[in-house]
Design goal:
about 240 residues, alpha/beta
Length: about 240
Protein backbone atom coordinates (compact mmCIF):
# COMPACT_ATOMS: atom_id res chain seq x y z
CA UNK A 1 0.00 0.00 0.00
CA UNK A 2 1.19 3.50 -0.79
CA UNK A 3 0.41 6.03 1.90
CA UNK A 4 0.72 9.80 1.57
CA UNK A 5 0.77 12.12 4.58
CA UNK A 6 -0.11 15.79 4.88
CA UNK A 7 0.57 17.45 8.20
CA UNK A 8 0.76 21.03 9.55
CA UNK A 9 4.52 21.10 10.13
CA UNK A 10 4.88 24.21 12.29
CA UNK A 11 2.88 24.16 15.50
CA UNK A 12 4.23 22.48 18.58
CA UNK A 13 1.37 20.22 19.42
CA UNK A 14 0.78 18.44 16.11
CA UNK A 15 1.94 15.13 14.58
CA UNK A 16 4.19 16.80 12.05
CA UNK A 17 4.85 14.96 8.79
CA UNK A 18 7.84 17.14 7.96
CA UNK A 19 9.80 15.87 10.98
CA UNK A 20 10.39 19.48 11.98
CA UNK A 21 13.06 19.78 14.70
CA UNK A 22 13.64 22.92 16.77
CA UNK A 23 17.18 23.99 17.68
CA UNK A 24 18.30 26.58 20.23
CA UNK A 25 21.84 27.93 20.59
CA UNK A 26 23.38 29.03 23.93
CA UNK A 27 22.89 32.60 22.69
CA UNK A 28 19.15 32.04 22.39
CA UNK A 29 18.96 31.77 18.61
CA UNK A 30 16.09 29.49 17.64
CA UNK A 31 15.78 27.71 14.30
CA UNK A 32 13.62 25.01 12.68
CA UNK A 33 14.69 22.12 10.49
CA UNK A 34 12.47 19.87 8.35
CA UNK A 35 13.79 16.31 8.35
CA UNK A 36 11.51 13.88 6.53
CA UNK A 37 13.67 10.90 7.51
CA UNK A 38 12.62 11.21 11.16
CA UNK A 39 9.01 12.24 10.50
CA UNK A 40 6.28 9.94 11.79
CA UNK A 41 5.38 9.17 8.17
CA UNK A 42 8.81 7.71 7.42
CA UNK A 43 8.97 5.86 10.74
CA UNK A 44 5.65 4.30 9.72
CA UNK A 45 7.06 3.41 6.30
CA UNK A 46 10.00 1.60 7.87
CA UNK A 47 7.80 -0.17 10.43
CA UNK A 48 5.35 -1.49 7.87
CA UNK A 49 7.43 -1.84 4.70
CA UNK A 50 5.17 0.46 2.67
CA UNK A 51 6.02 3.47 0.52
CA UNK A 52 5.13 6.81 2.12
CA UNK A 53 5.36 10.19 0.41
CA UNK A 54 5.74 13.29 2.59
CA UNK A 55 3.67 15.96 0.84
CA UNK A 56 4.57 18.62 3.36
CA UNK A 57 6.64 21.60 4.50
CA UNK A 58 6.84 23.78 7.60
CA UNK A 59 4.08 26.35 8.17
CA UNK A 60 1.73 24.70 5.68
CA UNK A 61 -1.94 25.64 5.45
CA UNK A 62 -4.72 24.05 3.43
CA UNK A 63 -5.07 27.31 1.49
CA UNK A 64 -1.39 27.45 0.53
CA UNK A 65 -1.30 23.74 -0.24
CA UNK A 66 -4.19 24.16 -2.65
CA UNK A 67 -3.21 27.47 -4.25
CA UNK A 68 0.53 27.05 -4.85
CA UNK A 69 2.45 24.41 -2.92
CA UNK A 70 1.07 21.13 -4.27
CA UNK A 71 1.24 22.30 -7.84
CA UNK A 72 4.71 23.77 -7.46
CA UNK A 73 6.04 20.56 -5.91
CA UNK A 74 4.34 18.24 -8.39
CA UNK A 75 2.14 16.65 -5.75
CA UNK A 76 -0.83 16.38 -8.13
CA UNK A 77 1.29 14.20 -10.42
CA UNK A 78 -0.48 10.91 -11.14
CA UNK A 79 2.82 9.08 -10.77
CA UNK A 80 2.58 9.87 -7.05
CA UNK A 81 -1.01 8.62 -6.72
CA UNK A 82 -1.42 6.72 -3.45
CA UNK A 83 -3.79 4.05 -2.21
CA UNK A 84 -4.37 6.01 0.99
CA UNK A 85 -3.89 9.58 2.18
CA UNK A 86 -3.45 10.81 5.74
CA UNK A 87 -4.45 14.47 5.96
CA UNK A 88 -3.76 16.42 9.15
CA UNK A 89 -3.98 20.08 8.25
CA UNK A 90 -5.51 22.80 10.34
CA UNK A 91 -3.26 24.25 13.01
CA UNK A 92 -1.74 26.99 10.90
CA UNK A 93 -5.12 27.68 9.28
CA UNK A 94 -7.07 28.06 12.52
CA UNK A 95 -4.76 29.88 14.92
CA UNK A 96 -5.58 33.30 13.42
CA UNK A 97 -8.87 34.12 15.12
CA UNK A 98 -10.08 35.86 11.97
CA UNK A 99 -9.99 32.60 10.00
CA UNK A 100 -13.20 30.69 9.30
CA UNK A 101 -13.46 26.97 10.00
CA UNK A 102 -16.47 26.57 7.72
CA UNK A 103 -18.58 23.49 7.14
CA UNK A 104 -19.57 20.94 4.51
CA UNK A 105 -21.98 23.59 3.18
CA UNK A 106 -18.86 25.21 1.69
CA UNK A 107 -18.25 22.22 -0.61
CA UNK A 108 -19.45 22.19 -4.23
CA UNK A 109 -19.58 19.42 -6.83
CA UNK A 110 -17.22 21.62 -8.86
CA UNK A 111 -14.52 21.95 -6.21
CA UNK A 112 -13.09 25.06 -7.84
CA UNK A 113 -16.25 26.75 -6.57
CA UNK A 114 -15.76 25.74 -2.92
CA UNK A 115 -16.00 28.67 -0.51
CA UNK A 116 -12.67 30.15 0.75
CA UNK A 117 -12.91 28.70 4.26
CA UNK A 118 -10.69 26.08 5.86
CA UNK A 119 -13.37 23.47 5.15
CA UNK A 120 -13.57 24.59 1.52
CA UNK A 121 -9.81 24.37 0.94
CA UNK A 122 -9.49 21.11 2.87
CA UNK A 123 -12.28 19.56 0.80
CA UNK A 124 -10.64 20.76 -2.44
CA UNK A 125 -7.56 18.73 -1.55
CA UNK A 126 -9.63 15.59 -0.96
CA UNK A 127 -11.65 16.17 -4.14
CA UNK A 128 -8.54 16.66 -6.29
CA UNK A 129 -6.92 13.46 -4.98
CA UNK A 130 -10.16 11.58 -5.51
CA UNK A 131 -9.92 12.60 -9.17
CA UNK A 132 -6.37 11.28 -9.30
CA UNK A 133 -7.12 8.05 -7.38
CA UNK A 134 -10.92 7.51 -7.20
CA UNK A 135 -10.80 4.46 -4.90
CA UNK A 136 -8.23 5.86 -2.46
CA UNK A 137 -8.90 5.78 1.28
CA UNK A 138 -8.60 8.99 3.31
CA UNK A 139 -7.70 9.28 7.00
CA UNK A 140 -8.35 12.70 8.56
CA UNK A 141 -6.44 13.53 11.76
CA UNK A 142 -7.84 15.61 14.61
CA UNK A 143 -5.76 17.87 16.87
CA UNK A 144 -4.37 16.19 20.03
CA UNK A 145 -5.55 17.52 23.37
CA UNK A 146 -3.12 20.10 24.69
CA UNK A 147 -3.92 22.18 27.78
CA UNK A 148 -2.78 25.67 28.66
CA UNK A 149 -0.15 27.11 28.61
CA UNK A 150 0.71 25.14 25.46
CA UNK A 151 -2.56 25.98 23.70
CA UNK A 152 -4.78 28.87 24.85
CA UNK A 153 -8.37 27.94 25.66
CA UNK A 154 -9.76 30.05 22.81
CA UNK A 155 -7.60 28.14 20.31
CA UNK A 156 -8.50 24.81 21.93
CA UNK A 157 -12.16 25.65 21.26
CA UNK A 158 -11.35 26.11 17.57
CA UNK A 159 -9.59 22.75 17.58
CA UNK A 160 -12.84 21.20 18.76
CA UNK A 161 -14.59 22.84 15.80
CA UNK A 162 -11.91 21.27 13.63
CA UNK A 163 -12.57 17.86 15.19
CA UNK A 164 -16.29 18.11 14.48
CA UNK A 165 -15.52 19.12 10.89
CA UNK A 166 -13.30 16.04 10.38
CA UNK A 167 -16.26 13.81 11.29
CA UNK A 168 -18.59 15.78 9.01
CA UNK A 169 -16.11 15.38 6.14
CA UNK A 170 -15.82 11.65 6.83
CA UNK A 171 -19.60 11.41 6.48
CA UNK A 172 -19.59 13.59 3.37
CA UNK A 173 -16.90 11.70 1.41
CA UNK A 174 -16.78 7.99 0.65
CA UNK A 175 -13.88 5.86 1.93
CA UNK A 176 -13.00 8.49 4.53
CA UNK A 177 -12.24 7.87 8.21
CA UNK A 178 -11.17 9.92 11.25
CA UNK A 179 -8.01 9.35 13.27
CA UNK A 180 -9.24 11.03 16.44
CA UNK A 181 -6.16 11.89 18.50
CA UNK A 182 -8.22 14.34 20.54
CA UNK A 183 -10.44 11.55 21.85
CA UNK A 184 -8.10 8.57 21.91
CA UNK A 185 -4.56 9.97 21.92
CA UNK A 186 -2.52 11.07 24.95
CA UNK A 187 -2.84 14.53 26.45
CA UNK A 188 0.14 16.64 25.43
CA UNK A 189 0.64 18.00 28.95
CA UNK A 190 3.78 19.17 30.75
CA UNK A 191 5.05 15.63 31.39
CA UNK A 192 4.50 14.71 27.74
CA UNK A 193 6.38 17.81 26.60
CA UNK A 194 9.36 17.05 28.85
CA UNK A 195 9.82 13.67 27.17
CA UNK A 196 8.66 14.09 23.59
CA UNK A 197 9.42 17.74 22.71
CA UNK A 198 12.37 20.05 22.27
CA UNK A 199 10.96 23.54 22.69
CA UNK A 200 7.76 23.81 20.71
CA UNK A 201 8.33 20.87 18.37
CA UNK A 202 8.40 17.12 18.75
CA UNK A 203 11.79 15.45 19.13
CA UNK A 204 12.76 12.15 17.50
CA UNK A 205 11.11 10.17 20.33
CA UNK A 206 7.92 12.13 19.76
CA UNK A 207 7.84 11.43 16.04
CA UNK A 208 8.39 7.73 16.67
CA UNK A 209 5.52 7.69 19.19
CA UNK A 210 3.18 9.46 16.76
CA UNK A 211 4.08 6.91 14.07
CA UNK A 212 3.02 4.13 16.42
CA UNK A 213 -0.22 5.97 17.26
CA UNK A 214 -1.14 6.65 13.63
CA UNK A 215 -0.23 3.12 12.54
CA UNK A 216 -2.17 1.54 15.40
CA UNK A 217 -5.23 3.69 14.67
CA UNK A 218 -5.20 2.85 10.96
CA UNK A 219 -4.88 -0.83 11.85
CA UNK A 220 -7.90 -0.52 14.16
CA UNK A 221 -9.96 1.19 11.43
CA UNK A 222 -9.07 -1.49 8.90
CA UNK A 223 -9.83 -4.37 11.26
CA UNK A 224 -13.10 -2.75 12.28
CA UNK A 225 -14.15 -2.32 8.64
CA UNK A 226 -12.52 -5.35 7.05
CA UNK A 227 -15.28 -5.81 4.47
CA UNK A 228 -14.54 -2.36 3.07
CA UNK A 229 -10.82 -3.01 2.79
CA UNK A 230 -10.77 -6.47 1.23
CA UNK A 231 -10.15 -4.96 -2.23
CA UNK A 232 -7.55 -2.44 -1.00
CA UNK A 233 -4.72 -4.23 -2.77
CA UNK A 234 -6.38 -3.42 -6.11
CA UNK A 235 -6.59 0.35 -5.52
CA UNK A 236 -4.92 2.06 -8.45
CA UNK A 237 -5.29 -0.97 -10.73
CA UNK A 238 -8.04 -1.99 -13.18
CA UNK A 239 -8.63 -5.23 -11.30
CA UNK A 240 -11.20 -6.39 -8.74
CA UNK A 241 -12.27 -9.68 -7.26
CA UNK A 242 -15.90 -10.22 -8.24
CA UNK A 243 -17.85 -13.12 -6.79
CA UNK A 244 -18.90 -15.70 -9.34
CA UNK A 245 -22.61 -15.90 -10.10
Amino acid sequence: MNLSGFLPPDASEKPLAAGDLESLTPEGVRDFHDNHDISWAQFLARMSGITVYNFTRGNMTAKEYWETFADGMGFWDKSKAAQAYVIALGCNDLEPESSMVGSTDDICADYTENKPTFAGYFAKIIQRYKEIQPDAVFFLVTMPREPEPFVPNNIAARYEEHRVLMYRLAEFFENTYVIDLAEYGPVYDEAFHRTFFNGGHLNIEGYYLVAKMIGSYIDFIVRSNSGKFNQAGFIGTPYRYCEEN
